[in-house]
Design a protein that fits this description.
Blueprint: E1 2-8, E2 29-33, E3 38-43, H1 57-71, E4 80-90, E5 99-109, E6 113-121, E7 127-138, H2 140-143, E8 164-166
This protein binds tetradecanoyl-COA.
Length: 171
């Protein structure tokens, strides 16, 4: 199903998942879709491997963690949270050097905790990894040593940013 992108989210600079200056990271981009899903696009590299030919499960988990955690910002742009639990199910190997799509949704939102689920989808539409996670809401100043210079939080628009994304049915 093709879904319109309503908004691109900010990126950090050094974050392993979204840091635009982190050349060992994933440089993931996050897009809010019209149906309330958060979609993330990324390419993993050979230096993210576990066994040769497959991406480390911890890397896939990190992608899912941040995608689910950021999905809260669709309705609450000022909410920040830390992951308190994540459960991941690895169904297929994830290869590097191919475009990966990750989607996340919030399933429960309470005053102190929120939960969500997500899946990592391969270019052929297969779901390779699923996850569910829970986060505790905290003030940004209680989470981050944020000086606003090296570690910024900004929108990095790109000419290649898509206007819509095709979400395959679950398989
Ligand atoms: C600006 C720059 C931005 C950079 C980029 C950002 C990208 C965004 C990335 C986003 C994605 C990436 C995100 C990341 O990678 S976040 C990094 C990974 N996660 C962490 O570092 C979290 C580490 N843990 C902690 O700091 C503490 O444990 C916290 C602060 C969470 C709680 O310690 P604290 O000592 O304060 O609290 P407490 O232990 O007394 O518990 C307090 C209450 O909470 C309840 N409780 C606790 N745990 C759970 C649980 N699992 N399920 C249900 N309930 C739970 C507990 O029962 C109690 O309830 P009650 O008895 O009071 O009723």
């Amino acid at each position: 199903m093709k879904l319109k992108i309503l908004k691109k989210q900010n990126n950090a600079r050094r974050c392993f998942v979204c840091g635009v200056d982190n050349n060992e990271g994933l440089k993931t981009e996050f897009y809010e879709l019209e149906d309330g899903t958060l979609a993330a696009t990324a390419v993993a590299h050979p230096f993210h491997q576990s066994y040769p030919g497959r991406v480390h499960g911890g890397v896939s988990t990190a992608l899912l963690d941040e995608t689910i955690g950021r999905a809260i910002n669709i309705t609450e742009p000022e909410t920040w949270g830390v992951t308190v639990e994540i459960t991941t199910r690895f169904k297929k190997p994830v290869p590097y050097d191919v475009p990966l799509l990750v989607i996340g949704r919030i399933t429960e939102n309470r005053s102190r905790l929120f939960s969500g689920e997500g899946r990592l989808i391969l270019p052929d539409g297969t779901t390779a990894v699923t996850a569910s996670a829970r986060y505790m809401k905290l003030k940004l100043t209680d989470i981050a040593e944020f000086d606003g210079t090296v570690d910024t939080w900004e929108l990095f628009p790109r000419e290649g940013d898509p206007a819509a994304l095709d979400l395959p049915d679950e398989k």
